[in-house]
């Protein structure tokens, strides 16, 4: 794949957040995106047209992560107020608040059926919350991590969490096993490859590591960017051909998946690129930065 | 949660939580129902405690019965299933009131029921009933072979009722109708006779008896007409006619059920055998076929004695109408019955009436010739081997001999005898051959104990033949002897198994052997597979006795060998403390083993760390080594058991893998945790570097400027020294104790297992670390010589928690971004406002003495108690204190964390280190005075709030200068402050009290 296929062209700039944008996420079909940030709001955008659609305000502190159900009807968000908010997208009202984390909540995800929200917290735990019942107690607390859990990914049958203790732990519900892959470096962010076979883990030694999920083998390391103290997102492109991630110097990096060479890197933001999200189908990505902007990149 | 709300910043109208709404609704409903009392009576509703309606309308159940009224079923009564009686009428049970009554009610009812008392119980019915009930009761009480209620027939009233007695006196006898028998007696008699003939037609004395009686009656009243309803009125105890079962049919099976003719035939044949048949009264043949010719009874003499009656036209009466027979009977009643049998007995034996013998039969019995036996066949098979079993039995038994004195020999002989008896002579020969030279086996060849052996062998054989005989008897296989494994083996030419010999030996010394084995495992410990032992490592330097015990423990663990009896430690130790120590040892040993690989690197990193304080140049080397290690080590995969919650499985649409299984045992906590929190002695094993660091602080304190290369040299000295590290009691107390200062310190230590508390402890230590960081930058500002900024490698190796915090906070707060000229500085003003203030304070506080600070602190704490808002003051004081305290705990402490590339364990270590700093400083305080220490406690409680707050502020400020200093997150500190706020409140309350 050549460099030309990498989205380098800035299509839109989404401005509106006051202060740092901490996460930007495409929805499941890629038509919309959600962002959340330091200004305690969650914003819904149409990135392709550059329109701000809606703002969700209820969080008491910064919002660190947001996720939307595949049917676009519900949102979940989490942040510094140690709560997980379960929103109705259209009305913008909070359906439920899940409290229980003893610290900030770093990441949150819906499961496949949107029936469970899994959150990763600074209190070294992953918690699963039931959206179906009215219970506000977590239905599962996974506290085998020995440090803050930074990121969580869900498959149909697994919960995967990446933690500062350097482990990526896969909790397989189907067989009831926990598989811990110790990377030796604090893990910032994990993201699944689109084929579901690999995990890309962003470590705080300025390295992205690609792990084979079945064997736990380290497949590749991607270096070149700076990631030492911030939670920086990383992801694979929609074709799984490239690995992309932000850098603390405002650059965006594209690596070739296989030979780990930097395919492209360019300055995208004036400040730390906190979040990257790739369009599920098209060659399009959004990046969020501490500078308060979200930029849409296309080829 | 409530406390958490204090910290929230609310904007606008809060969105109501859903459950709040629903609960309010519920409450409203409840209130509404509470107002029901004001309603008119007929509108009120009675509910039980759980709010369910108590009474229902008459058509919906009246009142709430069921379990609530303890009727035994949910509905309050046992509902009957509708069963259609169309098809199975017999099964329809009649319900009566008893079905719906409880047992006690039933008892009541029965108590009230009327019954005849004994003396008026004319016919004994009540007595019979009572007896039956009694029997039933007994039946229920004890189990019997026949389950279920006793059939009525079996339980007969034993009492002779007065009525019966009377009747008997009046001449009534059992088996008779009570009513006046005259009118019906004739008919009855006839019927009886008929029945008797039909059913038995045997020479039953009883039947004859009744018949003769009835005949007598008959004679008395010949003219009487039989009545119609006499059968019904015939009420008396039945006469049981016992008919012995003589055939081989099943009980109750009547082969002639549908062909009574054959029965007759059979009977006649049987009786024919018995009887000579001299008295053949008449042929029944014509009778059999002739009776249908007319209704007129064929018989003779009817007309002579009585009128012919319609009653006598018995449609069902078969040809055997011997109505008249009893006329003759009178003379010889006993003969009559027997006479009636041969009536069928015919000349035509074996031919049924109506049949005739075939002239030639088609049926021919087919015969098969037996197989031709070969001429040389010997009907009895004999195995070639000397399998004795039978044929030596003829031998006379050898005389009984007392067993030899040697018990072993006796056992041996017995064993061999048994085996020989089992396996045959062959075995004897074999063992003879084998053990020719063995003096023990002399008895085989006629030496010592031969007599006993022969006797024993004979006995055994006797036994075996008995057994085999039995078997043979059972199997009834006379021609074949029983094939045993041995005999089969012999046939096939197999050698007897070696096992047998072993059996022998083990039988001799089995018990001892077990004992020995047990002792072996008891005295010898298996060496654990550990290659390297490190005698050099002395984790319990401070306690020589303990160290000695530890070494012994290590030796046992890794080298095996004899377990020393004193291994369990000195006798004055209690069991619990011994166990605890053993745990310590385990932990320490594991820690040592784990630390083995990094030993060299540890060393180098130690020096590297030192050089770093002086120049930070050679750090790169260490990181390279670390990289190498990292490459080798990671990623490392481990697997554990993990139990997902059933609800989670449900929500993920998966089957719970642990469905129905008991909960797994909780997984062991990670090594770090155990090291930190099991006990301080275990901690100390891993803490040498901390000690070093502590040394370093003291040096730093004494000579702030003189952080130089010679530190490294001193360092080495220190390493050899035995450092006694105090237990961090103060810390724990400061954190956990609210009013239990006098509580046992060790217990409080043990209690720390609580993970939440752990986190708290960890955060506190982290605060210390951060304070160190702060101080470093402060010193820089003051122009003191401070180690230069961290190279990148150290960043990487920083504690993950702080790294993460950095990530969070940095991302979160744009102010602390490296990009200084960020236009959107929302929070910067406040921070900037804060900064110079703090700085000033720090400058002031720096040169002050300990006492002053403490005094000030106490004061300020007091202020805080009163106002709770003079934070500036507190900040000030805290800063001062911090400056004082942390000048000791200067930056090197935080640097030393980088030794281990394993971030998690390093995290723990760094926590430990900081704790050690902590209690070192506490130590110093307590040195000065004892009440000082108390103050310290209280102060630390109060202070922590400000410290954390201050810390966040300071870190924010310094992040402008050093990015890496800013690693502590506001979130973390806020979290701390939450907790400390609470603590401060508690403190306040205490003070007020």
TrEMBL record, chain A:
Q: Show me the WD repeat boundaries.
A: 14-55, 56-97, 98-130, 266-299
| Similarity comment | Belongs to the WD repeat MORG1 family.
Q: Where in the cell is it found?
A: Cytoplasm
Show the PANTHER family listed in the entry. WD REPEAT DOMAIN-CONTAINING PROTEIN 83, WD40 REPEAT PROTEIN
Q: What is the lineage of its organism?
A: Eukaryota, Viridiplantae, Streptophyta, Embryophyta, Tracheophyta
Gene Ontology BP terms: mRNA splicing, via spliceosome
Task: Alphabetically list the UniProt keywords.
Answer: Cytoplasm, Repeat, WD repeat
| CDD domains in alphabetical order | WD40
Listed GO CC annotations: catalytic step 2 spliceosome; cytoplasm
Q: Does the keyword Membrane apply?
A: no
> What Gene3D superfamilies does its record include?
YVTN repeat-like/Quinoprotein amine dehydrogenase (2.130.10.10)
Name of this chain's protein:
WD repeat domain-containing protein 83
Q: Does the keyword Cytoplasm apply?
A: yes
